[in-house]
Amino acid sequence: MSIDQIVAFASLALSVFFWWNARQQAVAAERTLQEIKSQIIGWQNELNKTAIEMLSSRPEMIAMRTAMADAGADSGFTGKMAELVERLSTSNDPNKAELVQALLTHHATIVLERQRIGMNAAAGWANPPSAG
User: Fold this and answer.
1) Considering only Cβ atoms within 10 Å of each terminal Cβ, which end of the chain, N or C, has fewer?
2) Rounded distance, CA 96 to CA 34, Å?
3) Model-level pTM?
4) Can you tell me the distance from the alpha carbon of 114 to that of 77, in angstroms, rounded to the nearest whole number?
5) Where are the domains of the chain?
6) What's the 3-state SS for 6-43?
7) Which pairs from 103-109 meet CB under 8 Å and 24+ separation?
């Protein structure tokens, strides 16, 4: 075996070693990049969650959700009251007619009072001005 052949084999062995080493480093770098990517995604999810929680806790959002729940409850109550009034009004009993009148008057008072409160709030009145 001549010196040229020894150098050629050594060169081949070193190139295989360097290829294998580069491959191992590339795999390790890919793993590191995946870990970084997953951490960044986790941080973004946490930031998004925190932002959503902050927005949800704003008084305007709470007031809107409260108003929506209140409107839903009012709608359900009004529907049930309409059914009750309809059933009571089909009777010829004068006591039931008086009851229907009382229910409708009470409901009208509630609706009008809510509208008055809403108008006062929209006008910015904390306390309506007194007459006098």
Assistant:
1) C
2) 75
3) 0.40
4) 15
5) 1-57, 59-123
6) HHHHHHHHHHHHHHHHHHHHHHHHHHHHHHHHHHHHHH
7) 107/78, 107/81
Per-residue model confidence as pLDDT tens digits over 43-94: 898 988 888 888 777 777 777 888 888 888 888 888 888 888 888 888 788 7
For residue 64, give the amino acid letter. Answer: M
pLDDT at residue 130 above 60? no
| Residues 6+ positions from 89 with CB-CB distance below 8 Å | 96, 97, 100
CA-nearest of 107, 99, 33 to 77 is: 107
Q: Which two tokens stand for residue 65?
A: 């959700």
Instruction: Find the Cα–Cα–Cα–Cα dihedral 102, 108, 114, 115, rounded to 10°.
Output: -160
| Cα three-residue angle 9-11-12, rounded to 5 degrees | 65
Question: Tokens at residue 113, please?
Answer: 């009072």
C-alpha radius of gyration, the chain, whole number: 39
**97 residue type, one letter:** A
Which two three-digit tokens encode residue 28? 């390790």
